[in-house]
Amino acid sequence: DSGVTQTPKHLITATGQRVTLRCSPRSGDLSVYWYQQSLDQGLQFLIQYYNGEERAKGNILERFSAQQFPDLHSELNLSSLELGDSALYFCASSVVAGTPFFGQGTRLTVV
Amino acid sequence: GDSVTQMEGPVTLSEEAFLTINCTYTATGYPSLFWYVQYPGEGLQLLLKATKADDKGSNKGFEATYRKETTSFHLEKGSVQVSDSAVYFCALSDQAGTALIFGKGTTLSVSS
After folding, report:
1. Which residues of B touch A2 (CB under 8 A)?
2. Which of A47, B29, B55, B100 has the fewest C-beta atoms lying within 10 Å of its C-beta?
3. Is any Cβ of chain B less than 8 angstroms from the Cβ of A42?
4. CA-to-CA separations, B19 to A42, B45, B74, B84, B106, in angstroms, rounded
């Protein structure tokens, strides 16, 4: 158990809908990262937050957004969902300049 | 930009065979290097890491040495087990605290 908690574990939704994925980092970790894992793209970095502020952006679509709250948990919002958004979404957390530890992921299926 | 290249899989071995999974990287500066493992149906787990040249990371019988001269971080294990069957990802972090850049992953299948 990495100490990073992601909910829900599985999510099935229809095209055009909006979903929210939640991540609770390890105790004491200020950095949260979001990744998308798909068969064709592999593991893609989406976005990083540090202590509530956006720190880095990767290949995140405009339809996607994220935030980190004062209690340090983070949410990834995916809207106007398309079939191609079906993937495994991982959250990771770390201390400052530390090694990222990953959650179990949320498997999103868009039908 | 920075990148990681892993050998293509799948890799199929018999139990107790020697394992090597090649990983090379391109980066400016001095990245930290990682191997993560993903067992079927699970998330990514840190297997080992190295933060500077000539460092050797090791864990659960797996080893990898940070070779700056060849920009490589190959994963090795002397005797694999069926339970090692998983997908292995090589990754780098180009600066402290920045997001990891992953290779495409190598699937290892070990049969008894």
Report:
1. 43, 45
2. B29
3. yes
4. 23, 19, 10, 10, 12
pLDDT at B70: 95
CB B70 within 8 A of CB B26: no
Tokens of A52: 């509530």
Q: What is the pLDDT of residues B46-70, one digit of tens each?
A: 999 999 999 999 999 999 999 999 9
Determine phi and psi for B82, rounding to 5 degrees: -55, -35
CB A22 within 8 A of CB A73: yes
Q: Which tens digits make up the pLDDT trace of B76-88?
A: 999 999 999 999 9
Structure token pair of residue A94: 């770390």
Which residue, among B29, B33, B14, has the nearest Cα to B109 in the 3D structure?
A: B14
Contact A31 B104 (CB under 8 A): no
What b/e readout covers B45-61, taking b as 16+ CB neighbours within 10 angstroms? ebbbbbeeeeeebeeee
Radius of gyration of chain B (CA): 13
